[in-house]
Protein 1
Amino acid sequence: MADAQHKPRNKQGKPASDDPVLIALGEQIASRRRTSGRLQQDVADAAGVSRSTLHTIEHGGSGVRWEKVVAVAGELGLKVEFSDK
């Protein structure tokens, strides 16, 4: 049963903000992390951010520096880009 502690939970948390753009970004990052079977701590360590920062990003929280979001996205094989509406 020890393995259950080392696998990502497929748990949806409450959004940390009301901003739909941040929430969508966080959901995409969390989904990619879970699909890849990685824990928040593992991704955070590899991206050079704290686990609490990754948690904030995944829950659409504001106040996270863009370079940290980009580092997490890159670690998960994603890139951040802007497009026309």
Protein 2
Amino acid sequence: MKRSIAAAACVLAAFTAVSANAEVISLNFAGLDGDAQELVLDYYNGGTGSLGSGPGTNYGISFSDNAIACSVQPGGSCNSGGLPTGGNLLFFLTGDASTMNVAGGFDTGFSFYYSAINNPAFVSVWSGLDGTGDLLATINLATTPSDPGSAACAGGGFCPFVPIGVAFEGIAMSVDFGGSANQVAFAAITLNSDVPGPAPAVPEPATWAMMIGGMGLVGASMRRRRVKVAFAA
């Protein structure tokens, strides 16, 4: 039987209509209730998640109603661990994809970390909202290793996470995160860069001077709104 991610049943232009925000934005879903597997919804659109967490930073980014934030091991509600930038992972339990909409658009590149230990998956970058318009890029995601016994993974099967990204031309307004439900996890979703993670800090002038001078489905029990992970053989 396949192991699954979840342990329970249970993304207006800033300048003009043809100009995207060039700021590197990395989402780690840390402000959402990952223990209770909260839907992301409008958390990054100046609103809240499904359980009222937020508001998050208003990036003009929203997610479809099957995109879930989930906490990892040790003690988290998903069968995963070792998130490279901390926070919560993103996954979905229904449908064949979850969708991120970016009303102001983004360009240059798109990147993230992922784990898919049983089934391959995919990510598609579109010029229109809700997976419409021109297909600007597709990333085919191969299956990844599983190392729950490592210290970093702390018992989580969907671990380690693998970095991947793509450069593209044009302005994108949505992304589909696709594959088999409950079988692929995403982390550090990054816009305007083909390398995942937060944008590197720019040293202050004084710092430069110093540098010149001298890195399956689930079975579980609910308890205090926490859903405990269950490993399947």
Protein 3
Amino acid sequence: MRYMMEKVGHVLDLFSFKHPEWGVSEISQTLAIPKSTTSEIMASLATQGLLARTEVGRYRLGWRLFHLSQVLLDNTDFCIEARQVMRELVERWGETSHLAVLDKGQVLYVEKLQGTPAVQILLSQIGGRLPPHCSGVGKVLLAQRSWHEVTSMLEEQELKPFTPHTITSFERLAQELEEVRKHGYAFDHEEVAVGLCCVAAPIYDQDGHVLAAMSISVPAYRFYPKQDTYMGIILKAAHCVSESLGYRKEKPKS
């Protein structure tokens, strides 16, 4: 039973934005599972609505997963609280706001709201994943971990250069994360996409643990002249969400 459940998880993990559709033979070869077993797994998932079979006999993710994802988001406190603050943020400033968590060593975008004047950001759609070293939200989430955890998490991943500005060395990343811990926010200066910047801040629970990171993304030509303003905006927004979750920042002792 455990073996079969693991295989089911591995099958579902294969579906992505880049590869949204799979055939039985492809999955059998990719995961080194007997074709008969693969066919049985995928037919069972389709029966449950977790996969949907196409007219040519291939498979895509099923709509039941969408329903389950909405149940998760609508019953996760920080998502509920963050969504309202993000709406106000986008309505007032007209820029894109993201909410992300760290999952299996990658940034997972769980919410994205976009204002009318905002640029289209294709890499960060809801459900999308990015390596954590190159984004503001990723650096905020990494900064809450020990350096040992960070290196263990990233040692199997290359510090991929998305642009000429992307951090590609562990030494530089360590320095950056130290700055994030010190100041409580992280910048992305055109590190994921040329011409796009962002600043991110952590969301804390009542015990002071970081649950997620929230960011505001702005075209570089608008961001650089008002970098401090956008930094203040996201710090205030993230703190508002944290407070609604019961977080109370300790005041320094006099």
Protein 4
Amino acid sequence: MAKEKQVVIKDVEISNNCPECFNQELRLTFYQRHTSTPFYHRKTKDVTHEIKCKKCYSLIYPVNWTPDIERVFDYYNKLVEPDRPAVRFTTLFFVILLLLIVLVGAGVYLILEGII
């Protein structure tokens, strides 16, 4: 039930030739994966990338990269700074935690008083 989404952390236009249509308008995008459940939201350290041609809309896979594209990718890959991995708990988590603490406390109280 965890929802995953890719959040853009860097989006750059590069002027290398597309291996498909030889146009000089490519877009390099870096994504960071975020997952969320009803109990927490989590930023992971997973960073992915995508190079897409702006004219023919084809994805340029690493197999088709030219040495120029590899150099530009290595440069921008060093510049990318993803958000720190973190976990943020939701209100639902804290409400359930508080209810559990109250139930355990009530149970201990009832046992100590000899009611149960």
